[in-house]
Amino acid sequence: MRASASRRRWRAVPAVAFAFAVTVSAVVLFAPRSGSGWDVPHLDKVVHVAVFALLAGTAAWLFGRLRAVLAGCVVYAVGSEVVQHVLLPRRSGDAADVVADCAGAGAALLLARAVRRRRARRG
């Protein structure tokens, strides 16, 4: 395989990872709620943090603009809760979910910034 073909394939990896993250978020945020049978306090908030960390991390990898990624995640977090509250039966919007979403996105972007700075120091 030629080097340029290999590079092109590797360039597709962030896009595939981001598409996967968007798909996971759509399923988690918009599928009808089903009882998990688990009685773990605040498990839904942990899931929100994880989903938005995955979204923000893959978006930062793909697009590179951390502030724009954060803004997009905040808009998506608020929008998803509005959609859940207004349009989806058996779902309800929750401001605490927006906070968890933003915390997950923020954590991933802080990590992305730290990785960038470390790489820049290495040269």
Number of beta strands? 0
What is the tally of helical segments?
A: 4
Distance between the termini: 29 Å
The major β-sheet equals:
none
Strand content: under 5%
Order of helices and strands: HHHH
Shape designation = elongated
Question: Helical residue percent?
Answer: over 70%
Pairing-aware structural class of the strands and helices? mainly alpha
Task: Give me the Rg, rounded.
Answer: 17 Å
Low-confidence parts, pLDDT < 50 over ≥5 residues? none
Mean pLDDT across every amino acid position: 90
Please give a structural write-up.
The protein is an all-alpha fold. It has 4 helices and no strands. The protein has helices at 3-30, 43-63, 66-87, 95-122. The relative contact order is 0.15. The model has no long low-confidence stretch (mean pLDDT 90).
Question: In terms of topology, how is this protein built?
Answer:
Layout: H1 3-30, H2 43-63, H3 66-87, H4 95-122
